[in-house]
Amino acid sequence: MSKSVLAYGVTLCFLLFGCNNPAVEHAGEHLDEAGASVARAVEIEKEKVQSDLQQARQNINRQIQKLESNLEETTEEGRQEINQQIANLQAFGRRIDAQMEVVGERVEDGWEQFKSDTGELLRDINAAFKEYFSG
To answer: Is residue 21 left, alpha or beta, with left meaning phi > 0 and alpha meaning psi from -120 to 50?
Structure first.
């Protein structure tokens, strides 16, 4: 018996006997409910990641503004250090912007890796803030 005939037979049996089976219909309903629950959970996670990225971007923008306002009041050596800090923050800002652009696209494809990459980025930013601005 060929594979296509066997597949056709299995499909036909399912259609003839499975569609009227309450257990099969009930299982289908549970799968639909589970799918909706997973979709809601992913949407909540996506919103949290977006919020975290937006907050980090706002913090970076505020810190850049503070540093820029200090540029004129400092020595040449101090300006070089401040400009380096601004450049580092701008680089983090570009990385955040890139993550925010793709957050919606990555929900279905590679979400866990995206979430991991975003967490790593936010940890890097926090470490940089501690290094540069606490003290």
So the answer is: beta
